[in-house]
Amino acid sequence: MKKIAVIGVKEDTGREFLNILCENGVNATDVTALELKAVLGTVVSFGEDDELDIEALEGFDFKRVEAAVFFGAKEALKRYVKKAVDTGIKVIDATGALLGDESVPMVIDGVADKEVLKNTRAVMAASPAVYQVLLPLAEVLKSHKLKRLSVNLFCSASHYGRAGMDELFTQARKIFLNESLVDNEAVFKKQIAFNVLPQVGEFVGDETELEWRVNAEIKKVLGGALKVVANAAFVPTFIGDGAFVNAEFVDDVDADELRELMKKAPQVVVFDKTVDGGYVSVDDVQGEDSVYVSRVKQDVSVENGISFWSVADNLRAGSAVNVYGLLKGMGL
Questions:
Q1: pLDDT digits (tens, 9 = 90+) for 287-310
Q2: Which partner for 107 in 95, 96, 112, 327 could form a disulfide, CB atoms 3.0-4.6 Å apart?
Q3: Could you tell me where the DSSP H helices lie in 121-160?
Q4: Strand, helix or coil at 242?
Q5: DSSP 266-299
Q6: Exposed, middle or buried, 191 (CB in 10 Å: 0-12/13-18/19+)?
Q7: Any bridge partners for residue 216, and if so which?
Q8: Has this prediction a pTM greater than 0.85?
Q9: Residues 273 and 197 occupy one common structural domain
Q10: If you write DSSP's letter for every residue of 84-103 in order, what string do you get?
């Protein structure tokens, strides 16, 4: 029996997860690669030396593996996620397909209770945006109770995968060559090169899809009584997301204390110097496993508040590293 089935290996996050498995010593023979549709003979790289045959998801017997990890479009994969859960194997849903299922917890490696994770057969992995917002608060929340979170997200083109990154590159190139952008706005709703777009995903009422999801996921991870507001915009970067987070607490908090607590959180690096360039930018974190925090300061607009800046590689740290940590936490 193979140990792990990875669904969505053609996705950027799925490929990054395969890299993480290989880097951590998982054998190629223990991994099954799956896609919704797979032409016979199609392969995907597993590290530098191995390749995996990609199998079609339709008709796959999940009893062949001990665990299944899902990446990709939630609607297309929803019935397969539920099928895997019903099989009784361990399942990690990184698509959001199980978001409405109250029986399935949403978790973040480093924030989730280890015993709960170990004894749960199916979990949802929080989105990369929520991961980089909540992971720095992992140690803080052990001694301080949150009242309200305000999150402003700056998202890279990689949220729309390779197609989004290609459109950004093509538009930037055409602008430099003074060529028309007509027919080059297929992925984004407006020009993304040298622009900022206050829409990430389709609209859900007054919110966009990502704003709605961040709100819903944070409440699912930490509890529904928490007040959350999220704003998200696309910025012309290829990989990596930034977030300004304003956190209001029930009790008194001090920025210096919270900065020290953040340093104790797993996979979090605090680099915070009040000098020019004494912070971490999105360009600094591509290919990195950690969430980086800078600009920790008091939020003087509320009684018990702090503000901080968080950046992470959304494909690697925000998705693949988190999912691998959950997989280990579940005993695989």
A1: 999 999 999 999 999 999 999 999
A2: 112
A3: 128-134
A4: strand
A5: TTEEE---SSTT-S--GGG-TT-SSEEEEEEEE-
A6: middle
A7: none
A8: yes
A9: yes
A10: HHHHTSEEEE-SSTTTT-TT
Please check whether residue 308 is in contact with residue 295, taking contact to mean a CB–CB distance below 8 angstroms.
yes
- Domain count within the chain: 2
Closest CA to 289 of 31, 48, 16, 7: 16
Q: For residue 33, what are the domain limits? A: 2-126+320-329
- Residue 234 CB partners (closer than 8 Å, separation 6+): 155, 156, 157, 159, 188, 192, 196, 197, 199, 200
Rg value, the chain, Cα: 20
Half-sphere exposure of 85 (CA within 13 A, CB side): 18
Token pair of 311, please? 């950046």
Is pLDDT at 1 greater than 60 in this prediction? no
β pairing state of 241-249 and 227-234: unpaired
Residue 137 and residue 121 share a domain = no
Residues 165 and 295 in one domain: yes
Tokens of 97: 């397909």
Are the beta carbons of 124 and 208 closer than 8 angstroms? Answer: no
Residues sharing a CB contact under 8 Å with residue 71, sequence separation 6 or more, in sequence order: 6, 7, 8, 9, 11, 13, 14, 17, 94, 95, 319
| Nearest one of 51, 61, 77, 59 to 5, comparing CA atoms | 61
Instruction: Say what the pLDDT of residue 81 is.
Output: 93
* Same domain membership, residue 282 and residue 139: yes
User: Does the structure show a pLDDT above 80 at 151?
Assistant: yes
CA distance 250 to 324: 33
Helix (H) or strand (E) holding 231: strand 227-234
Statement: residue 112 has pLDDT above 80: no
Angle at 165 between CA 162 and CA 166, to 5 degrees: 80
Distance CA 239, CA 232 (A): 15
CB atoms within 10 A of CB 73: 13
User: Is there a single domain that holds both residue 100 and residue 147?
Assistant: no
